[in-house]
């Protein structure tokens, strides 16, 4: 398997955003995997886990940041414990030629966790997390459907979720 295939890049080594895939070796992939498992690892702990020097771990990490392979760090939270107990996927059909504007508007809405452009019978898939069904109704019917360019929505309530382990 080639580097671009392993990184999920499309034809010509280009990823979904048209960027050229960065060449990564096994050590780079191990660094990324370890940080996906625990983003709070110190450089020292990272070096120990990978059996490399701290200088090597630090320089590799700096390059991964510079090349935007690693774009940031975030806390993984339990949405239920934050009070966001209702989750849904909302498909959105839009008018032709307005996807950028709709994407920008959806990304600003409260409760919207993720927006994906898809190749399906609809144009976008929106993940929504809110406190309850009334808030979900408000987000879908009053906010998403009010975005200029949105033609139709369809909502799938999520009853239970399972996530794989990162890496």
Provide structural commentary.
The protein has 167 residues and is an alpha+beta fold. It has six helices and four strands, in the order H-H-H-H-E-H-E-E-H-E. It has a four-stranded antiparallel β-sheet. Strand 2 and strand 3 (124-130) form a beta hairpin. Helix 3 crosses helix 4 (54-66). The longest helix is centred in the middle third of the chain and has 13 residues, at 54-66.
Features:
single chain, 167 residues, alpha+beta, four-stranded antiparallel β-sheet, 19% strand
Structural class designation: alpha+beta
Helical residues, percent: 25-40%
What's the count of strands?
4
How does the major sheet shape up?
4 strands, antiparallel
Shape: elongated
Count, helices: 6
Which parts are unreliable, with pLDDT below 50 for 5 consecutive residues or more?
1-15
- On the 0 to 100 scale, the average pLDDT is 89
Q: How much of the polypeptide forms β-strand, as a percent range?
A: 15-25%
Indicate the radius of gyration in whole angstroms. Answer: 20 Å
For the largest beta sheet, what order do the strands appear in spatially? 2-3-1-4
End-to-end C-alpha gap: 18 Å
List strands and helices in order, with pairings.
Layout: H1 3-6, H2 26-37, H3 43-50, H4 54-66, E1 86-94, H5 99-107, E2 112-117, E3 124-130, H6 133-144, E4 150-158
Antiparallel strand pairs: 1-3, 1-4, 2-3
